[in-house]
Amino acid sequence: MPEGDTVFFAANRLRLALAGKTLVRSDFRVPRYATLDLSGERVDEVVSYGKHLFVRVGGLSIHTHLKMEGVWRTYCVGERWTRPRVQARLVLTTDDTEAVGFSLGAVDVVRREHEDTIIGHLGPDLLGPDWDPEEARRRLAADPGRAVGLALLDQRNLAGIGNKYRSEICFLRRVHPATPVADVPDLAALVNESHRVLHAAAHRPPWRELVYGRARMPCKRCGAGIRVRALGESVPMSDRFIQRERGIYFCPRCQPAPE
User: Fold this and answer.
1) How would residue 241 be classed by pLDDT, with cut points 50, 70 and 90?
2) For residue 235, pLDDT beyond 60
3) Cβ distance 134 to 206 under 8 Å?
4) 2 carries an active-site annotation
5) 133 has catalytic annotation
6) Is 3 one of the annotated active-site residues of the chain?
7) Label partner for 7 (CA 20 to 30 A): which of 15, 19, 76, 258?
8) Is residue 127 a part of any domain in this protein?
């Protein structure tokens, strides 16, 4: 799933292409908004929050989430799209630009003042102007028995970390991902590392992976073979629980398993 830096890049690209321009056409290819027409409205700004992206048009805010396969692309009007047209879920067109959201995981339109109904439950945005490390630390510490590798992935604690960066952050702090939050030696330092990593990925790309995707390859710090293991938890779904697991990468020598 695309992480905070990817959405941050997408927002920057859309901002350059659309902000300050008037839409001549909008095409919502989702049933709920199929009749919504924003032509004649001005795009005021494009912003990201964690993994969420908002295009603010007039009094409305178009919210999108990439989920697993979504991507935003911009084209000159008349230019051939580089993805199949059937994958387009949203098209915003100005006099000279087409912004196309392909395979978007979510598309919503709300009043600007109601954006909190979508992101109000999230933790501080690691790439936002109002980043609050103490609030992020407090939210992580509120569930001391939870594995830190799971807590970092929970967007209600910090917004923007996905599977790749949680592996990288734990490695940099020499913390095994299964370590309970309460046993992390310096939780504030972990929070600061999270901010540093996401900020570096967003502002000084490309990020060169230290452990993620390097199973069985030598650790860049000690030479031991990198391992990947499933780390999951039970998630409530209506009247039952399902087990959700994702692979997380670590060095068994630099990040010894908890007792």
Assistant:
1) very low
2) no
3) no
4) yes
5) no
6) yes
7) 76
8) no
Q: Evaluate the CA torsion angle 202, 204, 205, 207 in order and state its sign.
A: negative
Q: Which of 3, 115, 168, 193 is catalytic?
A: 3
Q: What mean pLDDT value characterizes the chain?
A: 95
Q: Which domain holds residue 242?
A: 133-250
- pLDDT (0 to 100) of residue 240: 47
Q: Single out the catalytic residue among 25, 221, 246, 252.
A: 246
The residue from 2, 124, 193, 214 that is catalytic is: 2
Q: Are residues 164 and 209 in contact, defined by beta-carbon separation less than 8 angstroms? A: yes
Residues 109 and 213 placed together within one structural domain of the fold: no
Give the separation between CA 152 and CA 247, rounded to whole angstroms.
14
Residue that is last in its domain, among 80, 97, 119: 119
Each residue's pLDDT tens digit, 66-113: 999 999 999 999 999 999 999 999 999 999 999 999 999 999 999 999
